Amino acid sequence: MFAKRTTRVVATLAFDFHQLISDVPREQDDSFTGLTPDHRDFVTALDTGLQVIRAFDGDHPRMTLSEVAARTGMNRAKARRFLLTLHGLGYVRRKDRYFELAPKTLQLGYAFLSSNNYQPVIRQHLERITEITGESSSMGVLQGADVIYVARSAAPHRLMTIALSIGTPLPAATTSMGRMLLAMLEPAELDAVLANLKFETYTPRTITDVSKLRAHLDKAREQGFCIVDQELESGLRSLAVPVYNMHGVLLGAINISTNAARVDRKTLKSRFLPLLQQTCDEIARQVG
What we know:
The chain is α+β, with helices and mostly antiparallel strands. The protein contains 10 helices and 9 strands. The strands form 2 sheets. It has a 6-stranded antiparallel sheet, sandwiched between helices.
């Protein structure tokens, strides 16, 4: 019985993982507007498999079955089936009682990076920003209520307590790139995100009121840039602007992250903002 269930889940995950990373609808279709879990076409097995993969991170690189079950909110039997399935597919490795992600999971992220041929261009520009300013610069895209880092040039000095890398998600509401991208959403899309937003207080400066957040988003949309001052971490101040391709399609946002004790808001606007805007203009000329 278990073998049959496992085979069925393996088949579902194997198909849907590859559909997820390779099949992009070529025409507008209401069935591709984003499904909710109660929709008849929603594949629960795929959602669960991705939850298990996302349970592993820098703080939890290796976990037991019980730890995976606890982090995903599943019972042990369900977590076991999906861990064994992912192990069979090559996405998870097992050693004694411990599970960890296998290198094959990199293919999921690589599919995104390789399908977006602007990545090398973006990376070169971010590195130039770091060279000029001595500060870290990144590009992010919006995914629900998170901003996902897709390119980064890190300065020698470390600004945040967490290590940022490609694929790192941060709360959009408390980051400059995230807020800039939230501000660019259509009203209905923004309403949907904010309706389900769970505010967390990271520092005494963190905005946790939806009305105040909307006011900041309106300001960012109007002025074309966003500054977030020590709301995610004390001492972290950042500036972000939207970046487009030559056809006016929004690619994401790029930022400069600084230490608040070293770089004041005036310097962000007078020195760093023109550099970011110039960089965006150059990217727009180079990326189709």
